[in-house]
């Protein structure tokens, strides 16, 4: 457990320029955990979860109610319901109160629940950036048709990527486990592969599509598996690139390869987060909830989240 001075158990704390204090309603951890503190029982301090070994500095995606605003805050006031991305250096979402910056905070409309909002920021922004910036998909449906493959399509980033991709002019192939095939189809995927079958492991499109872009959300897959399935200028967008991916990227740059592996480094932007929240409000994007757990058994929820087989998001409630 990592404690930091940006997560507090009291709403009274010196606020910096452009900062405000949030009373937490829900928080999403990079490990896959959501916390929904309620009126009956709340997490008053990150140390209360020390026995669960939960990394509070990983908890950056939150929804809450503004309690106090600091100097320089222009567009928010106490009582406003918001969705925010906390500092990736300090996190702080696993507490009753947390400090947030106006620059990465957007309003949460009543049509979007706290859990839906808290699950959205990093996963949704990653999917959005991969599709629009790296793959070149236009989410208004214009532009040339693109064949897209999304791996681990029932996971946190993947389930958003499927929905966002289908807003564009795309044919979407997705991979997931057999128990989630119907879910991924319901999110809009045109064809779904069970990753445990030979066809799924080979990433071969059932209809013979060659992929213009792959949004790779799963564990590492060798380039030799991707390469024969790509179009002449196809890209593999790796959202969690490791050393092997970075080496492949460097070699391809040096050899001027037309098929490329592209490492993705997320840069959260307020206007993109507001766009995603409005998609949820309008019913064009949804957060899939895997399961709900009582706060007293948060360790079980955390264990499930890091197991890597959750379908969407995991919620912890009192």
Quickly list its features.
alpha/beta, 2 domains, nine-stranded mixed beta sheet, six-stranded parallel beta sheet, 15 strands, 25% helix, globular, disordered N terminus, oxidoreductase activity, Chloroplast_QOR, Enoyl reductase (ER) domain-containing protein, ER, GroES-like_sf
CATH class of the largest domain, anyone? Alpha Beta
Major sheet summary line: 9 strands, mixed
The CATH level-2 architecture of the largest domain is identified as: Alpha-Beta Complex
The class by helix and strand makeup works out as alpha/beta
| Backbone CA Rg | 20 Å
Q: Poorly predicted ranges (pLDDT <50, ≥5 residues)?
A: 1-7, 32-53
Measured distance between first and last alpha carbons: 20 Å
Reported by name, the CATH topology of the largest domain is Quinone Oxidoreductase, Chain A, domain 1
Secondary-structure element order, N to C: EEEEEEEHHEHEHEHEHEHEHEHE
Number of helices: 9
User: Considering DSSP H and I runs of 4 or more, what fraction of the residues is helical?
Assistant: 10-25%
Pfam family, one: ADH_N
GO molecular function: oxidoreductase activity
InterPro entries: ADH-like_N, Chloroplast_QOR, ER, GroES-like_sf, NAD(P)-bd_dom_sf
Protein name: Enoyl reductase (ER) domain-containing protein
